[in-house]
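Quick bug: Putative HTH-type transcriptional regulator output formatted oddly.
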Amino acid sequence: MPQAMACQIVNQVKDRRVERGWSQEQLSALAGVSRQSINSIERNRYVPSLELALRLAQIFDSTVEAIFQLEELP
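Here's what came back:
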């Protein structure tokens, strides 16, 4: 039986937001969540729901896979 690997989710939310010149408040208004939620996502302290991940991908005209990646821990 294959062993489960230890992973973490990393994201490009802050990079995408900064590229567009948006504040956390602006992105939170577009996404319909609080600024604190955006801050927590950017700092990898909160994993968004599938619905929010899809909404963020749509806002950034991207895919969920391009914004959120699963990285193996050493």
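Actually, after a second look the formatting is fine. Strands lie at 7-11, 68-72. Closing.
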